[in-house]
Amino acid sequence: MSEKRTLIAVLGDEDTTTGLLLAGIGQNDASTGAKNFFVYHEDKTTKEQLEAKFREFTQERKDIAIVLVNQFVADIIRATVDAYVEPFPAILEIPSKDHPYDPEKDSVLKRVRKLFGE
């Protein structure tokens, strides 16, 4: 199952997404128009748009291995992120320039703590 998953997807602010695209993770399928990144704009993007893109990356697309999400973006759709329990694609919360990383909010670290009985 994981053999077909070769892409990294991004749900993040403009600076994070731009940096990762410059690093070479961008994929734009010319035939379908599908992209493996989504830029969150605080004044333009709705919670519903974020949830739809998260579902696309995690449930509909079978070519994505890792979804990188700015933690503050994950906080907006926290219930959806926490409800996701599949091994692929892996969801990793990352900091952004303007929002520091808080390990207490990270869904992966919450699961690890629960596994170890903390």
Automatic annotation (TrEMBL):
A GO cellular-component term linked to this record: fungal-type vacuole membrane
Principal cellular location given in the protein's record: membrane
Membrane topology annotation: Peripheral membrane protein
GO molecular function: proton-transporting ATPase activity, rotational mechanism
Function of the molecule: Subunit of the V1 complex of vacuolar(H+)-ATPase (V-ATPase), a multisubunit enzyme composed of a peripheral complex (V1) that hydrolyzes ATP and a membrane integral complex (V0) that translocates protons. V-ATPase is responsible for acidifying and maintaining the pH of intracellular compartments.
Family stated for the protein in its record: Belongs to the V-ATPase F subunit family.
PANTHER family (alphabetical): V-TYPE PROTON ATPASE SUBUNIT F (PTHR13861:SF2), VACUOLAR ATP SYNTHASE SUBUNIT F (PTHR13861)
Protein name listed in UniProt: V-type proton ATPase subunit F
Origin organism lineage: Eukaryota, Fungi, Dikarya, Ascomycota, Saccharomycotina
